[in-house]
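W.,

You were right to be curious about this one. When I first looked at the sequence I had no strong expectations either way, so I just let the prediction run and decided to look at it fresh. Below is the sequence, 678 residues in total, followed by the output.
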Amino acid sequence: MHTPELFRDFLVIILASLPVAYLCLRLKLPLLVGLMLTGIAIGPYGLGFVRELEGIEILAEIGVMLLLFTIGLEFSIRKLREMKTLVLVGGGLQVGITIAVTAMIASSFGREVTQAIFFGFLIALSSTAIVLKSYVDRQEVDSPHGRAAIGILLFQDICIVLMLLLIPILGGKDVVSFTSILLDLGASLGSLIVIVLLAWLLIPAFLKQVVRMRSTEVFLLTIVLLCLGLSWITFQFGLSLALGAFIAGVVLADTDFSHQATAEILPFRDVFNSLFFVSMGMLLSLSAFVQNIGSVALLVGGLMIGKALIIWGIVKLLGNPQRVAVTAAVGLAQIGEFSFVLAKTGRGHGLMPDTDYQIFLAASIITMIATPFLISYAPVVGALVQGLLKDGRFRGLENTEDDEAHVTSSGGLKDHVIIVGYGLNGRNLARVLRSVGVNYTVLELNPEAVKDAKRQGEKINFGDATRREVLKHAEIEHAAALVLAMSDPRSARLTVKLARRMNEDIHIIVRTRYVTEITELYELGANEVIPEEFETSIEIFARVLHRFGFSRKIIEGQIERIRKQGYEMLRSPSAPTTRTVELDLEMQSESTESVQIRKGSPAIGRTLGEIDLRGRTGATVVAVVHEGDTKINPGAKCELFEEDIVILLGNGEEIAKAIDVLDPLEEFAMDTLRGFNP
């Protein structure tokens, strides 16, 4: 039977992939390269352990769909609207110019015009699966070069429809009028628009009903159904399966369930996606490669360099800096998996002889294998090119760091607090953090609570904190503190363990009902465990404020204020969220001041211990900002540099003395301004 044979092949692939994966990790090589080499070894042209590729290719196609689905979850309708120039202009120019250049080169080698144009179709497409997988692993999907690459890839996927329609005409076997082509193309694009609109209207409402069941299994099945179902629908209208999966992800990205959907689907994506890379390797015939090694090498070098130059020019034309243009160009300089579909179709219409087909397959696989290595070195090449070639734009190279800004779907949070659970304690903590101006985000599994909180403007997302991807979307790597305010002991233990692995420096505070759990939570990595018998809300926000550098005097004043008000701020949702700490500072005649260390300051190159600012002036250094990074409660060994910003706490006299020590020119300037009356 077919099923047992497929099962055997699947088992062989897994058995062969495991040791290769181990070696790749030990040698620090890209895993997908190892998977493709595995396919070459065990495929029908290698050792022959797997001979029938049809079933494996179906499973591999599912992997590509799941990959595109998770990529779509990183975007939204709003983001795609912002990328319309990249998709339409960038993608359109890349496909058109690549086809034209390839056709001219092929014609110069004596190929017929129809064949030359067909070769242009093949070269124009890049590998969506490999490029996106590499960017996902490197967390560069939302980087400037990542957005540029994805915009071009999306247009390529849309063009597959037109290319498939044109192949019979190029083959000369079907006589189709230009009008019929336009009608077919218009029908495909119209279908795409209708599918997107219906998905955008129906899917969020459907998911809300599913989530109310509070069943992880039902939620997972629904997500898989939406991904595969929408892929099937787009395929029925002549579009690619992967495009349907991407649409499903984009629609879900605008809902409250995107983080949880990502966490649930990732294990399936990784398994099936591995099959795709193995199946790609199985297509390569080593004997054909050896027989045509010269032609293969020439094709590989020519198409990668030529394609990279075309994409570099287009991305640069769209206003991107040299670094972004080069990085995107290097990442897309390969043949795509959908080119194999076109090659098979064109071969059937007499557009590609057998010899050319084998050379094309060999060159394609080699470019795919090389892509992860090229992507890893692309930023270095981009920086080198940017240093050699001036941008020629008004802003020049000064905004390099701004161009590189990596804003994730959670908003690019940094030094923030992650609150898990939006019950009484979670709401109280969020309210206090909002009142004192500390950035935070909330994770909650109750969909109704998420919906209600979002309606009130709360920074909250639907997600399970025990899942790695959910914490990653909450930017745990850059978070200052994690507060577990939920009532699930098991989830608390799992979250503490996972969070400590993902961020060794994060400060973890856990609320628990049972005193017996304190020891275990500490062993798992919690910094502080608060039993429920404590004044939980007050204790949590007091410790968080302390972590952010607020003095004990200020914290105690805040607590006293809340208690004097009869806990009104904590009890009433409509309580004003004024910056009460600032008011408290005024009452205590204390304030904060920031001082920039300018050129010529005697503090440059000295540590805080050497300066002894508190001993000399009475003012306290609560933070130091160095090259954009803020260090809270810096120690005596903290060294000051030019352009650093020092945050001081004290009364007016103490701060004036401290400014005179850190920057005498600042004090002189202030005195001058005070005596100037226009």
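Here's what jumped out at me. Strands lie at 417-420, 440-444, 460-462, 481-484, 507-512, 528-531, 591-596, 620-626, 629-632, 645-650. And, maybe more interesting for your project: Residues 417-584 form a domain with the Rossmann fold fold (CATH 3.40.50.720).

Coffee later to discuss?

I.
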